[in-house]
Each structure stands twice: as structure tokens, then as C-alpha cells.
């Protein structure tokens, strides 16, 4: 698993089962773009650990939060995966749920939530955040035991445990699943699919790929297959759990 060292901002390899690390969950910055693995690697090649290589503000802030809370390593999907390598991308997608689950802290950065925000009102910036509408952030909400929500200025809003009632109202996901009071296997296939029903992804295939971890399956990622990806997901789930209700999710 490739991660960033939160002190040097350089890539390192770790065994996620044996190393403590934090993980970042965020929505893609379409306005400013995101530094990819290839871009960041080229920058790092021109720098030694002193001084630290120049990186985007979001990456620096995520590393600073993780470092402040005691983590030497952080995983960020936008820059820690070599997305030009189809094999690495496929492996990462199939393993991502486990990586989030093994992390000791997930930093959920809500870029559209201003400082000093209220969260109890349904019309609040917190409850209306884009983060709660994206397909990939679903696994990033459920898989980790600890999720801390941060506002646009990187101030702590609260934890998943503290805001469980509010998050349940926003997402429709029972607090028993959010807080790991029951294993995922205790929730029906149809119920797990329903958690993603109102979520969106940039690429149609990701609607299926982002759910792989919820059913403990592996399947190759084939970008360009379109809606067939969801049918393949259903077929793989069916092999493990003959629950006909899953086909209601087309």
C-alpha cells in the first residue's frame, strides 16, 4: 500500500495490516484539480526530504491534521494510486474497503461546509454537503470505525459517533451500521444496495465498483463497460448470497 509520510510528504510503502495510518475522504476538486500520483512523484524526484516537496494545499492540510493527531502515514486516493496502471487501479478498488476499515482514523473533509457551521438543521451546510451525495464516500463513511468531519477551513466539526443521529437522518443508514454495532452481513443485500440509491458517481461504472467492498467480493474493473458493471456486481453478489431482492436495484 502506497501512502504519504505526513512529515516528509514523500511516498512510502507500508503493510496496512501492521502499520497505523490515517486516511482522507473528500470529494474531487473540479475547480482547482487534484495532484495525481504521477504529478506528485515527479515533484518528489526533484526534492529530498528537506525541504518538503511542494504539494497542493489540501494534501498539506490533510497531512498536518493526521500528523497532529499522531499518525505518521496517510492514504489519499487521488494521489496514492497510479491511475495510469489499470492493474494497480483495479487492485486498489477491490481492496479499498479493507484499507478504509483498517485505518485508525478517517478524515472526512467537507469542502463546501463553512467554519462555525450548524449541523442539526436539515437545511444546514453540513446536512446539504456534497460529500453525503457521492458514491465513493459511502464506503468511506461506513468502513472505518472512526470518522472525523472537518469543515472547509480544516476545523473539526465532530466525529461519526458524536453525530450518528444526524448522519443517520442524512443518509438513511442505521446507526447500527454506521457505528459497527452489527456486522455488514447482518444487513440484507437489498438494504445495503439501498444505501447507495441516491448517490452519484462521475463515471457510471463507479456506481458498481464503489460497492464491491460491501459484499466482500472481487471483480475486475473494466472502464468503458457502462451499465454492465452493475449487472456484473449483482451476479457476483448473487453467487455469494441468493437474495432475489437485489435485482430490484437496476
Explain this structure.
- The protein folds into two domains: 181 residues, no CATH class; 67 residues, no CATH class.
- Helix content is 34%, strand content 11%.
- The two termini are 33 Å apart.
- 33% of the residues are buried.
- The model has no long low-confidence stretch (mean pLDDT 91).
- InterPro entries: DUF8212, HET.
Mean pLDDT: 91
Helix content: 25-40%
Number of helices: 10
Could you give the order of strands across the largest sheet? 2-1-4-3-5-6-7
SS strand fraction: 5-15%
The tally of beta strands, per DSSP, is 7
**Stretches with pLDDT under 50, minimum 5 residues:** none
Q: Please state the CA-atom Rg, rounded to the nearest Å.
A: 18 Å
**Termini separation (Å)?**
33 Å
Can you write the helix and strand succession as a string? EEEHHEHHEHEEHHHHH
What is the molecular shape? globular
The largest pleated sheet is described as:
7 strands, mixed
Structural class: alpha/beta
Number of domains: 2
Quick summary:
With 250 residues, the protein is an alpha/beta fold. The protein has helices spanning 37-45, 57-68, 77-80, 86-102, 136-142, 164-171, 175-178, 189-194, 206-209, 228-240; strands spanning 2-5, 11-13, 22-25, 73-76, 105-109, 147-150, 156-159.
